[in-house]
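pipeline: protein-struct stage 2 | run 1193 | C-type cytochrome biogenesis protein CcsB
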Amino acid sequence: MSDSAWEALSNQAVAAAGLVYFLALLAHLVEWSALRKVPVEAGARETATVGAGGPAAPAYGASAEPAAGSEGPDHEHRIDLFGRIGFSLTVVAGLVHAVSLLARGMAADPNRVPWGNMYEFTLSGTFVVTLLYVVMRRRLGLSWMAPLVVGFVLVLLMVDVIWLYAPVSPLTEALNSPWLVIHVVSAVIATGAFSLGGICSVLYLLKERSITKGRESSTGYLSRVPSLAVLDRVSYRLHAFAFPVWTFAVLITGPIWAHQAWSNYWNWDPKEVWAFITWVVYAAYLHARSTAGWKGRNAAYLALLGTATLWFNFIGINFFSTTSQHSYAAPEPAPVVAEAPVLAGGA
């Protein structure tokens, strides 16, 4: 295949992945809508243990017994069916997503890893979010997170295609290094795990708010989300996994690569500064959890502050900084002749 054919395949695969993600989101929304008709008894709310050796949290309300007046086993079967369809479509979308990354790398001359610009970084980051969700879904019981994860990935893909798309080009001299693979792989893995932890923190705050204001219901999405203690624990474990990976990316491989490229370990570049700010916020989160006993609401707010600095560094700094040496990561306007992939829903 020619380079242009590989690039066209990558664009088509992104569009196909977006469509399948959209179908997966619809399946999970139908599942959630059906669950609104199945109330959860007060004494049967989910109390799943989470972690190595612990049983996986069932999909939404599977651990709870439906109250009297529910629509019976046929309705429960339809709920389970749409949940399985949604997860299967998410797996398929992830595979197609991977094809788009592979084809993107093959489209370059010479062939390279698909991390040459902001479009490719975001394409990789969203893939890792999906991959981590699929891999950790059973281990950490994350099936209740499905609609939020799929919606998050779909929205970022649309942003990536609409505003960040750039045609395939050779790597710049600064990027043409073995450290590219080591640094970026660790960074995107940490970004994916931090993002999942941030979603847990958002759900914690929403569920706590509904409880404290007396609005907790036996139906609806939040009634199927795990208890506050489980949400807090899952968020902590995701952050605890991501933090050493981020440390490796930001404080070890990043400075080594910077010294190789620019003859200096630290350049006070905006990307470097914000990556370090993100590291400090997450370090404070984990330190507060382990020493000051911060749990629940305060920990969730601090985790979301970390998520905000993470994604501002990942995408936002490219739009606000004109002095960054990481200029290759900024979005580039595509030539008129280049055809960006089109996602379902008008992207």
